[in-house]
Amino acid sequence: MPTLTAPDTALARRVDHTLLKPETTTADIEAHIAEAVELGAFSVCVSPSFLPLSIPADADLAVAVVVGFPSGKHTTAVKTAEALEAVGRGADEIDMVIDIGAAKAGRFDLVEADIASVRRAIPAPGVLKVIIESAALADDEIVGACRAAVAAGADFVKTSTGFHPAGGATVHAVRLMKQTVGDAAEVKASGGIRTLADALAMIDAGATRLGLSGTRAILAEAAGASPAPSTPDSY
Fold first, then answer.
1. Does the predicted TM-score (pTM) go above 0.90?
2. CA–CA gap between residue 172 and residue 105 (Å, rounded)
3. CA distances to 64, 87, 183 from 126, in Å
4. Is 155 an active-site residue?
5. Do residues 132 and 108 lie in contact, with contact meaning Cβ atoms separated by under 8 Å?
6. Is residue 188 annotated as a catalytic residue, yes or no?
7. pLDDT digits (tens, 9 = 90+) for 176-225
8. Suppose 145 and one of 67, 118, 132, 194 were both cysteines; which one would form an S-S bond, judging by CB atoms 3.0 to 4.6 Å apart?
9. List of domains in the chain
């Protein structure tokens, strides 16, 4: 397992600090942004309805939003329009959910076409992450979904929404995803990562980005501090 020399910075810069609860308020988002800035996270990942976000001018903080979330059953036209609007309202990164049923049916041509349409809506240097909901897929389906994402021009493949009953990220899925995409894309692990050991295991398996809601507790554990109590989150 890797040792991070400055966990309060090196680990934080891998984190998409995430808040996607349906009951989230504008006040919650404002507090979430402030916490992300304080902790040194790479980005905040939020629902698109909160755009545009008020990010401090001197903050090194990217904005990620979800598209087709959480089911992936939106039409391609809706996902594409959602991504286009989000980018126009300040999103730097888009985390889109594939049609998981299409992947289960082996229709990776449809999965690729869906992703490619959203990709065209995100001009450079915008980043596209593709959520495959790995816990709901068999290994061959994970491989097929990752190959479709790379073929469509995705920058990342991502394990999970954090909302599927099948579960979130696993070391096995992250390792398989990284083996599949190689250097053609990066891997984001998300869903159920609640401890420092979880986070480091995902990085060791090949993840370069982590979707966390309990960021403060994990960074406190990395720094050897006592974390503040946190509210359990499904993400």
1. yes
2. 22
3. 10, 8, 18
4. no
5. no
6. yes
7. 999 999 999 999 999 999 999 999 999 999 999 999 999 999 999 999 86
8. 132
9. 12-222 (3.20.20.70)
Distance (Å, whole) CA 26 – CA 124:
29
Cα dihedral sign for 204, 209, 214, 219? positive
158 is catalytic: yes
DSSP state of 48: G
Task: Name the residue type at position 47.
Answer: S
List helix spans (H) across 41-75: none
Helices (H), the chain: 26-39, 76-88, 100-104, 108-120, 139-151, 171-181, 196-205, 215-222
Helices vs. strands in the chain: H and E counts, helices first:
8, 8
Catalytic residue among 95, 99, 114, 198: 95
Which value, to the nearest 10 degrees, does the dihedral of the CA atoms of residues 104, 110, 113, 117 take?
A: -80
Neighbours of 20 (CB within 10 A): 22
